[in-house]
Specification:
Number of domains: 2
Oligomer: single chain
Distance between the termini: 70 Å
Strand order of the largest sheet: 1-2-12-13-15-14
Largest sheet: 6 strands, mixed
Mean pLDDT: 96
Shape: globular
Amino acid sequence: MKLEDVLAALHEDEALEVFQPHWDESEASLGPELPFFLQPDQVSFHSKWCGFGTEAETALQEAACHIARNPALLHLAWHCYRLLYEHTDYNRMVEWPTLEAALGELGGAFYILVTMAMIPRVLAVHRSMGVPEDVTRDTCLQVSCVAGNYARMTGGRLGVTLNTIYWMRHYPAGRLFRLGRMEYKIEPYHGGVEVYRRRASGDVIALAPDGVRFNGAGYVDGAGGVFDEKCSWTSTLTYDDEAVTGYPISPAGMAVRHRVRLPLAEWERVLAKGDLILDMHIPAGGGMTPEKCGDSLRRGVDFFRRFFPDKPFRAVTCVSWIFNTQLEEIELSSDNLVRFQRELYLYPVPSTGSDGLWFIFLSPSVDPATAPRDTSLRCAVADFLAAGNIWRGGGMFFLTEHLDRFGTQYYRSHWPPPGLGL
């Protein structure tokens, strides 16, 4: 079929440019049999691996039947599957149409079926690696996690959020794995701080990168386009044969306007931009007790050391709204997030003023006057924004050598390192 005819039949003519790439290849590869991810037995198999219950599976089977009977939907489903998992240079999924004109409320289920098509690929790569089945099952649950976000956005409808569907590519590539509460992958550290450890005592200090402008409170200046014209300052980081000199970052998450000199005979650099790190990601779902978070960190480090021994790393890092120090300033029904923060070494990062608000409110824009307040987090953040405050993100690192000290607030209890005048 021609793409123009497919989209016309679905009343989605405006999506021609979005779906044009690789269309002819998809058409040439579509055989006479029903695509595997639309076959009833495979829909059932995939939905169970992804964590969907009986009600969702019934709706997915209904959607698959609709698609199978409609040539335009069938050809488009095959093309979307190939764009997502075969052509990883393609990145316009967020522009895909809702397909409500053709499928009504089952339009979202169309994209779940396409997304779940990753299951055979994930199973194959995990089995080839020898990954335990419980890790594979937990990893595949991310499909139902993003479906949960979609349901909360749409009043309970079935679907996936198109702005996160690209993330599914990591799983069949054998890069991203869920270990307990968190997900992890190995990648080069993008920077944010340089970390040094005192050779004799093990004291840890992070230094700000060169040329970062901070406000008077020690956060990266310019969050939400607001600048501190009176009290801002710019960090420097210099090296010579004997020492590194720069501005420290407190483990509580802000820069300190006091230059320190670290003699290299006494201090060793243990984390810098480009080093391999274990990059942590936080699936939706709540329940982030320090106990679960600590267990996940330990499981993550053990797993990646076992399965990726050729990619050594010394730290776990993450940038997220979860590590925004403003969480200590708002009243929540649970202190889990703040307790988790205090186990880590936090650092400031550039912020747009809306960092993470989508994950909290599931909306691209947030008006505090009309934002939903059905949870303590939403209520507290909406009140915080309504008071004229600017929301931030934050970063964290945790050195793997300190895993046995998780639960002791190690970085904060050993701050500041003695002898630096802080």
